[in-house]
Write a structure and sequence with these properties.
With 135 residues, this protein is of the alpha+beta class. It has a domain of 91 residues. It has two helices and five strands; from the N terminus they run αβββββα. The strands form two sheets. Strands 1-2-5 form a three-stranded antiparallel β-sheet, covered by helices on one side. A hairpin with an 8-residue loop joins strand 3 and strand 4. The longest helix is centred in the C-terminal third of the chain and has 28 residues. The chain starts with 9 loop residues before the first helix and ends with a helix. The model has no long low-confidence stretch (mean pLDDT 77).
C-alpha cells in the first residue's frame, strides 16, 4: 500500500516545484524505478502488462552539526558529528517515452480480455438483478 503522501499532477509539480522539472538530473538527485503490472484474465490465461514508473529522489539539504561527545565514564571529550536526518523530495518523472509497448499482440490480447471480462460482469449483474426482483 502506498504511504499517505500528497499526489500531484505534472502541471501541479511544474507550478509548485519548478526546480524539480529538469531535463538533466541534478547532482543532489538519484533516479529510482519500480515496475508495476496491470493484469487481467480471460478464460484460459492471465495477461499482465508491465508498467515502469520512474522517480527522482532529491535531497533538500546536507545538514551536519558538530557536538561534543562526553563518554559516561568521564574520559576524554571527543568531537563528533551529529547527523541531522536529510530531507528528500520524491517526484515521479515517468513520461510518455518511459513505457514503449512494441509487442502490440500483448496489448491486443490484454484489451480483448478486458472487453470480454467487462461483458461477463455486465451479464452477471443483469442476471442477479433480475433474480432479485419481486414478482
Amino acid at each position: 500500500m502506498a504511504p499517505p503522501v500528497p499526489v500531484y499532477t505534472r502541471d501541479e509539480v511544474k507550478m509548485q516545484f519548478p526546480q524539480y522539472m529538469m531535463k538533466f538530473l541534478p547532482s543532489n538527485c538519484e533516479l529510482y524505478s519500480i515496475i508495476q503490472n496491470q493484469c487481467t484474465f480471460s478464460a484460459d490465461e492471465i495477461i499482465c502488462v508491465p508498467f515502469k514508473r520512474v522517480f527522482a529522489k532529491c535531497r533538500r539539504g546536507n545538514q551536519e552539526a558538530k557536538r561534543n561527545i562526553i563518554p559516561e565514564n568521564g574520559g576524554l571529550n571527543l568531537t563528533g558529528k551529529k547527523l541531522i536526518p536529510r530531507e528528500y523530495t520524491v517526484i515521479e518523472v515517468t513520461d510518455s517515452l518511459t513505457n514503449k509497448y512494441d509487442n502490440s499482440s500483448l496489448m491486443d490480447r490484454f484489451f480483448e480480455a478486458e472487453r470480454d471480462l467487462m461483458i461477463r460482469f455486465q451479464e452477471y449483474e443483469e442476471r442477479n438483478s433480475k433474480e432479485g426482483e419481486i414478482k
